[in-house]
Amino acid sequence: MRPERHCCLIGIDIGDVLYDNERLFGDGVNIASRLESLAPPGGICVSSKVYDELRDRIECDFVDLGQQSLKNIPFQVHAFELRAKEMVEARENRSGASAKPLLLPNKPSIAVLPFVNLSGDPEQEYFADGVVEDIITALSRVPSFFVIARNSSFTYKGRAVDVRQVGRELGVRYLLEGGIRKAGNRVRLTGQLIDATTGTHIWANHFEGSLEDVFGLQDKITASVAGAIEPKLQQAEIQRSRTKPTESLTAYDLYLRALGLFHEFSEAALRDAVGTENYVWTAPAVQERN
User: Fold this and answer.
1) Residue 265 and residue 278: Cα distance in Å, rounded?
2) Hey, what domains does the chain have and what are their CATH numbers?
3) Which of 113, 203, 215, 235 is most buried, by the most CB atoms less than 10 A from its CB?
């Protein structure tokens, strides 16, 4: 169980658990830990073993999530989301099904959603998750970006989502989603950058390489995607600022007048631009030397 924006994600499985006086481990612990990523914020995800034990004993609904490929689990796990009436009501009150959407940050904001494994090979699930984690890390290094953490974006793994709803729930303007396919010893990864406020595509491309050096391929794809995303986000933000209407025509008119006065670089012009007689003029150092 781990915190997620003031609530918890819970995964439950039944299985053997070992204890070595310091930690718990075993298949039961590993599967429960991976089921967390499938649970919605404030929700519970259980394995088919738990479902078989509970379905006739408690009054709640189970949503069949189907067979899931979980990271570091060598077999697929049949998962269910547990939905009790009280849990749904509490989740709606917390996450705001009826509340106002989260306010967008004052800088480019993006969430990288888990890439879809289109090859049917569970091994590629781990590769795709690793690429997504590396892309999130790379984008987080850009100071001008607001990037949603992996734990938040991975709550949408394995779920069909509406990009506009995801944008509202996470409070971001842009989403990066994609998929991965394998053919022989080669893998192809596709990515799309979407404006979550309108649902329109901003950028799309594909990257491919050989699986002979998995980590090298991961680094190459990560660098390519992150390198393409950064300028595209900047261009999208510039275009948005150009088309965004001013909220006050009077203020915008005054701004343009002040801007023209500012570029005259004289004491009188700067006084007029600031609009106060208390402005203190400090001559540039180059003028003082002259």
Assistant:
1) 17
2) 2-95 (3.30.70.1230), 109-243 (3.40.50.10610), 249-289 (no CATH)
3) 113
